[in-house]
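Researcher: We plan to redesign the surface later, but first we want a full-length starting point. Tokens attached.
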């Protein structure tokens, strides 16, 4: 499960999740997801996003952050980012982006997020009321289709491709253990070429890899959110039909979304629908 630690008395995080279902409540029929990435908080950004994030409380059940929460990944920047999230009362699920790795403080910035109550995913998952499973990983580079990098030649190239494949395996492993009726994936790098279109074609290989798409299809993921491709396209689909949304903040703005996040609702099948769909013809 995702890393989440005690709140250390901070208001942020400690109050998060108060809107979770009670045992006596009926099951959710849908989940509303507010998703954004690439807001790149700098130390001078205090207060810039706080009110905009807080609006998610009334509109969504979960806030998803698709990486690049900071500009350079310094602890000071991440402290600013969690202050921007201070008024968010719904659960927050996040992955880190490449910018959050830049200055080599991954452990420290991860701790800051976790201590603020954020469910930080790195090849693992978190579930909302046993109905919706979120799996998340940053992902990595590699490219798409016949032009994807392959593990051939120099050791450095093999290592790079190996790192990308390792993230795919982690994503696949996490999905294989997620038994909720609905599965949602959170990435930073793009899993399909369709959502990097608009970026210079020369850098597509650095914006993601479609190796990440195969587990999304195999485990019938209901929606995938990613960031990183700031001038890519807003939406696309995997070969198997999984809807993929590039929720990078600049892309949302370009797409006419004026809120801080894209709001996406996913229906949750009722237990009777699930039983019917899993029954084989022989047993019907
Ligand atoms: Fe970014
Ligand atoms: Fe990025």
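Model: Full-length starting sequence:
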């Amino acid at each position: 499960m995702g890393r989440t630690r005690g709140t250390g008395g901070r208001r942020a995080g400690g109050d998060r999740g108060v809107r979770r279902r009670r045992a006596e409540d009926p099951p959710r029929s849908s989940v509303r997801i507010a998703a954004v990435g690439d807001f790149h908080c700098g130390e001078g950004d205090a207060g810039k996003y706080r009110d905009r994030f807080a609006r998610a409380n009334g509109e969504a059940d979960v806030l998803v952050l698709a990486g690049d929460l900071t500009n350079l990944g310094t602890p000071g920047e991440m402290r600013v980012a969690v202050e921007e999230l201070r008024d968010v009362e719904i659960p927050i699920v996040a992955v880190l982006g490449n910018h959050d790795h830049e200055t080599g403080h991954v452990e420290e910035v991860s701790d800051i997020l976790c201590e603020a109550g954020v469910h930080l995913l790195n090849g693992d998952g978190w579930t909302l009321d046993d109905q919706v499973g979120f799996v998340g990983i940053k992902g990595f580079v590699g490219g798409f289709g016949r032009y994807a990098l392959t593990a051939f030649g120099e050791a450095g190239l093999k290592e790079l491709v190996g790192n990308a494949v390792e993230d795919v395996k982690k994503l696949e492993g996490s999905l294989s253990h997620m038994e909720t009726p609905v599965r949602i994936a959170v990435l930073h790098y793009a899993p399909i070429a369709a959502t990097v279109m608009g970026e210079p074609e020369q850098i597509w290989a650095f914006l993601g890899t479609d190796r990440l798409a195969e587990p999304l299809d195999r485990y019938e993921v209901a929606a995938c959110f990613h960031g990183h491709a700031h001038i890519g396209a807003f939406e696309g689909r995997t070969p198997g039909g999984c809807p993929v949304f590039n929720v990078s903040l600049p892309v949302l703005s370009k797409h006419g979304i004026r809120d801080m996040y894209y709001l996406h609702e996913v229906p949750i099948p009722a237990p009777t629908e699930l039983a019917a769909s899993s029954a084989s013809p022989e047993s019907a």
